[in-house]
Design goal:
The chain is of the alpha/beta class. A hairpin with an 8-residue loop joins β11 and β12. The protein folds into three domains: about 120 residues, Response regulator (Rossmann fold, 3-Layer(aba) Sandwich); about 180 residues, 3-Layer(aba) Sandwich (Rossmann fold), CATH 3.40.50; about 130 residues, Orthogonal Bundle (Helicase, Ruva Protein, domain 3), CATH 1.10.8. The strands form five sheets. A five-stranded parallel sheet has the order 2-1-3-4-5, with helices on both faces. A five-stranded parallel sheet has the order 7-10-13-6-14. The chain has a two-stranded antiparallel sheet with strand order 8-9. It contains 18 helices and 16 strands. α5 crosses α6 and α17 packs across α18. The radius of gyration is 28 Å and the shape is globular.
Length: about 450
């Protein structure tokens, strides 16, 4: 973390630089606020400690000019006794914190470490949002629904910890995408990410696949074979469809999670492993526990943090952006532009999408491949529960994006209000937005 100290008191600059340097921070110091501002805007700093009272330009003016020039480092103000009002005014202008002189070394270190933690979390959230946008995990290009923003931010918070995470959601919502994003944001990102579908492998083979076996452990075991836990050592292992894990293996998995070691089939000794385990399921785990199909102790061990991905039908405001993203992807593969007509946009937004994001992506690709041209209309889409039809909204021939999106929002809000029998709070919950946002949209879109 790189810091800039701005204070006209040379003794204070020197003592702060020494204190923070001993704590392994990179420290620069300036006594002239004009020169400090120039450096703050031209160099990369994570944190600025700025005095409130300085000749030529005071700390509040420094902060205002720094923010006006799009400076984004956190700023901690330093004030002498009697200058608290100025420091609080600076905080109202966007300063992160303030320290009152004379301050103790521990107070300075604590304030800087708090700022460091906040900055690290902000960067993790931004990086995760970016990767869930048009990057490596682009199946969830969402920026509209509050529900998905909450999922992304919680994923960012848990990514840097080693805790187990249970990811739930219907098929096609993107559970593995979120798991990969958590791995990418974690300290294990340089190591491997491994995924296994517990429902896709026969029970008699699954134990060997997970934990490995030794030569001669069973008929056909002609050599030693490491399991996925060993192969994922140091990295992340996703156990998809965890609810379908056979009960005989549930006890073994629990021991792995509790003791951090595995034993190959046929082996006499256990091996220590260091694997971060993520689990995913589309089933209701609580019901599986109640029916005795899944061990309650394993369930509670996996369900330390739960991330639930809402189905696409509960966040229709994400569909226009997803459509744009998938159309762009297909266009790159086909070598010609691909777009969706206003009528199709409204119809697709009103479709229930039982297969969620995966179904939407496949529908766009199929339509683009089979259509005569690059402009996709309702007739080009064939959906599992019937082809969508255009609904109230976009006037014929309108191509303006703002008008199209407003029509889609209007239709989605109308459907939510109908489903909630006019209860606006419940409609807001169905849409995945706040009640305040719904009121704003109702004022902006009076025809809804």
């Amino acid at each position: 973390m790189r810091l800039l100290i701005v204070d006209d008191d040379a003794g204070l600059r020197q003592s702060l630089a020494l204190l923070l340097g001993e704590s392994s921070y990179g420290v620069e110091a300036e006594g002239d606020p004009e020169r400090a501002l120039a450096r703050a805007l031209s160099e990369e700093f994570d944190l600025i400690l700025c005095d409130v009272k300085m000749p030529g330009m005071d700390g509040l003016s420094f902060l205002r000019r720094y923010r006006a020039e799009s400076g984004n480092a956190l700023v901690i103000m330093m004030s002498a006794y009697g200058d608290e009002d100025a420091a609080l005014a600076a905080m109202r202008e966007g300063a992160y914190d303030y320290l009152q002189k004379p301050f103790k070394p521990d107070e300075v270190i604590l304030s800087v470490r708090k700022a460091e933690e906040r900055e690290r979390l902000r960067r993790e959230v931004e990086a995760l949002r970016s990767s869930l946008g048009i990057g490596a995990v682009g199946d969830l290009v969402v920026s509209q629904s509050r529900a998905m923003r909450d999922v992304v931010e919680l994923a960012a918070r848990v990514a840097r910890h080693n805790t187990t995470v249970l990811i739930t959601g219907e098929s096609g919502t993107g559970k593995e995408v979120i798991a990969r994003a958590i791995h990418k944001m974690s300290p294990r990102s340089e190591r491997g990410f491994t995924a296994i579908n517990c429902a896709a492998i026969p029970e008699q083979l699954l134990e060997s696949e997970l934990f490995g076996h030794t030569k001669g452990a069973f008929t056909g075991a002609t050599s030693d074979h490491p399991g996925l836990f060993e192969l994922a050592n140091g990295g992340t292992l996703l156990l998809d469809e965890i609810a379908d894990l056979p009960q005989a293996l549930q006890a073994k998995l629990l021991r792995v999670l509790e003791e951090g070691e595995i034993r190959r089939l046929g082996a006499r000794e256990s091996k220590k492993i260091d694997v971060r385990v993520l689990a995913a399921t589309g089933r209701e785990m609580e019901q599986a526990v109640e029916r005795g199909e899944f061990r309650s102790d394993l369930y509670y061990r996996l369900n330390v943090v739960r991330l639930h991905i809402p189905p696409l039908r509960e966040r229709p405001e994400d569909i226009p952006e997803l459509l744009t993203h998938f159309a762009r992807q297909v266009a790159q593969r086909l070598g010609h532009p691909v777009s969706v007509t206003p009528a199709a946009l409204v119809a697709l937004t009103n479709h229930t999408w039982p297969g969620n994001v995966r179904e939407l992506r496949n529908a766009v690709e199929r339509a683009a491949v089979l259509s005569a041209g690059g402009l996709l209309d309702c007739k080009d889409f064939a959906l599992a529960n019937g082809a969508p039809s255009a609904q109230n909204g976009v006037p014929s021939g309108v191509l303006d994006l703002k008008t199209q999106v407003e029509a889609v929002e209007r239709a989605a809000i109308q459907r939510a209000l109908e489903a909630a029998n006019g209860n606006r709070r419940q409609a807001a919950n169905l849409l995945g937005i706040s009640l305040r946002t719904l009121f704003y949209k109702l004022r902006r879109l009076p025809a809804a």
